[in-house]
Design a protein that fits this description.
The complex is a heterodimer. Chain A is an alpha/beta fold. Helix content of chain A is 30%, strand content 30%. Chain A contains eight helices and 16 strands. In chain A, the strands form three sheets. In chain A, strands 1, 2, 3, 4, 5, 9 and 10 form a seven-stranded mixed beta sheet that branches. A five-stranded parallel beta sheet of chain A has the order 13-12-14-15-16. In chain A, strands 6-7-8 form a three-stranded antiparallel beta sheet. The termini of chain A are far apart. The model of chain A has no long low-confidence stretch (mean pLDDT 93). In chain B, the strands form two sheets. Chain B has a nine-stranded mixed beta sheet with strand order 9-8-7-10-6-1-4-5-11, sandwiched between helices. Chain B has a two-stranded antiparallel sheet with strand order 2-3. In chain B, helix 2 crosses helix 5 and helix 3 packs across helix 4. Chain B is globular. Chain B is an alpha/beta fold. The chains are: A alpha/beta, B alpha/beta. At the A-B interface, helix 2, helix 3, strand 5, strand 7 and strand 8 of A face helix 3, helix 4, strand 7, strand 8 and strand 9 of B. Bound molecules: flavin-adenine dinucleotide (FAD) and adenosine monophosphate (AMP). The site of flavin-adenine dinucleotide (FAD) has 28 residues of chain A, from helix 5, helix 6, strand 15 and helix 8. Flavin-adenine dinucleotide binds next to helix 5, helix 6, strand 15 and helix 8 of chain A.
Chain lengths: 294, 248
């Protein structure tokens, strides 16, 4: 069997962007193996409750690969499927191929300081792809829905992180602040800039998260989130190796820092040397104007 | 409470990665190895939850040198260690999870703690896989944990919110940053750790079905460019973002 199952996440009945990326990768694998793609939608979170239904679906369909997103649900579901289907799992994949019938993948390791190429040798392989890395597919696929059973652990409640707050791991633009912001009371400058872009999330360095200025969920870096947005703006962040680990795969990096020798400027495509308290409000204003024009 | 903590020996996060002679692993010359930072959260959580008469056992799959990593956890306060020996830690997370599950299954643990992720292979898998192999409930990437009798409540951060999870102990938890602040081993702890027992036995690894082909360095980012100084540089920055980088 050379068919591939795309396991895609939905929110409020709409397929998430990561789901479209999953379909694209599933099609790529199926194309190389000479099979076709079915899609299975996940409406609820709670991997423990979904695992049984997805497993049954895979067993019934006799697939060669299962593709899902390495999202917080996917990172929890993937390992469960691997055990239940006794299949190897390729986690957080950034490139995929098929070589002599075997699935090969590239994955960042050592906090993105190296890329590993890895080959799966099994009749069924599970592939969890890094969100925001593959081009989304816009075509139609045959879908059915996974059902949530009573799992051994259950989601009691989901506390929303505020209306319209974009997650730093999902946003296409991320504006991050560091210790250079001097205190939590100044982060509205970062939030305002993010808002001016319209589709940006707020991120933070570990220093400010540890100081309690910002929530853990915003931390970017080795012990925080790994992000690959189109645009990453680092404000008052020095660019420690552990921070770079989380954002070096951004398409474009902008740094604003008053220290010309800050290591962040080594990786920033565009840097401005200067005081964030002067630059950020002006930049926010200019971005607003720019967006009003278009 | 009887608690097991699975820990991994990993290169220090400051390490500058160089590819080794075999082309698939890092050149370990001069590399300092540490206890995986996320496993520190797991060890700390176990120590805080160990009650009178309880025990904290640390378990690792790794080479002889991983005994040092066990010593670090013992110096933090764990009671004893188990080294499941393998010369090479496989790239296949499921193979590692099977070795851990085989060791843990008859241990009578109330809680089995893991780090969320190992900062070398980034699999984010071994804890959840081990739980599934053991048939135990699992909450992965927990930032908050409460155990009240047999009822366990844990919070995990998901895209745009926090999931509150419930299950019963015995359970597996994989620990994320935010759960606690790991202690540093004190001199007294380091001395005490020298006398604590470490049992070594061969790792009963599962089948390894993932093989490394190459390890490469990521494409270098273009050398950074400073656009200018102060607010005067803003128009040029925006022009570059629109016309050159085309991200706006
Ligand atoms: C195991 C481990 C894991 C880690 N994980 C992470 C992680 O996930 N994420 C992370 O970020 N860090 C992580 N770190 C910490 C990391 O090493 C750094 O300590 C941290 O990133 C520094 O944060 P920062 O850049 O905000 O602060 P600093 O290094 O203090 O930098 C502040 C910067 O602000 C600039 N500045 C000051 N005032 C202004 C101003 N008015 N205008 C403009 N610029 C100004 C300064 O020039 C300086 O460059 C980790 C460390 C370890 C050991
Ligand atoms: N070789 C190992 N020995 C013991 N525990 C491990 C090993 N590898 C991973 N783990 C545990 O599983 C967690 C997740 O690792 P990983 O799935 O490799 O990212 C780690 O934080 C450890 O708690």
């Amino acid at each position: 069997m050379a068919n591939v199952l795309a396991v895609i996440e939905q929110k409020d009945g709409t397929v998430k962007k990561s789901g479209r990326e999953v379909i694209a990768v599933a099609k790529q694998i199926a194309g190389s193996l000479g099979g076709s793609v079915d899609a299975l939608t996940l409406d609820a979170s709670g991997a423990a409750a979904l695992a049984a239904s997805v497993t049954a679906h895979v067993k019934q369909g006799g697939y060669a690969a299962v593709v899902l997103a390495a999202s917080s649900t996917g990172k929890d579901l993937g390992p469960r499927l691997a055990v239940r289907l006794d299949a190897p799992l390729l986690m957080d994949v950034t490139a995929i191929g098929v070589d002599g019938g075997r699935i090969t993948a590239s994955r960042p390791v050592y906090a993105g300081k190296a890329i590993q190429q890895i080959v799966a040798d099994a009749p069924l392989t599970i592939v969890a792809i890094r969100p925001n890395t593959f081009t989304a597919d816009t075509g139609e696929v045959k879908t059915s829905a996974a059902s949530a059973a009573t799992g051994s652990s259950t989601v009691k409640e989901v506390k929303a992180g505020g209306q319209g707050v974009l997650d730093v791991g999902e946003a296409s633009i991320v504006v991050s602040g560091g210790r250079g912001m001097k205190g939590p009371e100044h982060f509205h400058l970062i939030e305002d800039l993010a808002k001016a872009f319209g589709n940006a999330a707020v991120g933070a360095s570990r220093a400010v998260v540890d100081a309690g200025w910002r929530p853990h969920g915003e931390q970017v870096g080795q012990t925080g989130k790994t992000v690959s947005p189109q645009l990453y703006i680092a404000v008052g962040i020095s660019g420690a190796i552990q921070h770079l680990a989380g954002m070096r795969t951004a398409k474009v990096i902008v740094a604003i820092n008053k220290d010309r020798d800050a290591p962040i400027f080594k990786v920033a495509d565009y840097g401005i040397v200067g005081d964030a308290f002067e630059i950020v409000p002006r930049l926010t204003e200019e971005v607003r104007k720019l967006r009003a024009e278009h | 409470m009887k608690i097991a903590v699975c820990i991994k020996r990993v290169p220090d996060t400051e390490t500058r990665v160089k590819v080794g002679g075999d082309g698939v692993s890092i050149d370990e010359a001069g590399v300092k190895f540490i206890l995986n930072p996320y496993d520190e959260f797991a060890v700390e959580e176990a120590l805080q939850r160990r009650e009178e008469g309880g025990e904290v056992v640390v378990v690792t799959v790794g080479p002889d040198a991983a005994a040092e990593t066990i010593r670090t956890a013992l110096a933090m306060g764990a009671d004893r260690g188990v080294l499941l020996k393998t010369d090479k830690i496989p790239a296949d997370a499921l193979a590692i999870a099977k070795a851990l599950a085989a060791e843990l299954k008859d241990g009578g643990y109330d809680l089995i703690l893991f780090g969320k992720i190992a900062v070398d292979d980034y699999n984010h898998s071994v804890g959840t896989m081990t739980a599934e192999l053991l048939g135990m409930p699992c909450v992965s990437a927990a930032v908050k944990l409460t155990v009240d009798g047999r009822r366990l409540t844990a919070e995990r951060e998901v895209e745009g919110g926090i999931e509150v999870m419930e299950c019963e102990v015995p359970a597996v938890i994989t620990c994320d940053k935010g759960l606690n602040n790991p202690r540093y081993p004190a001199l007294k702890g380091i001395m005490a750790a020298k006398k604590k027992p470490i049992e070594t036995k061969p790792a009963a690894l599962g089948a390894v079905r993932l093989t490394l082909k190459t390890l490469g360095l990521p494409p270098e980012r273009k050398e950074g460019r400073i656009v200018g100084e102060g607010v005067a540089a803003i128009p040029e920055l925006l022009r570059l973002l629109r016309q050159e980088a085309k991200v706006l």
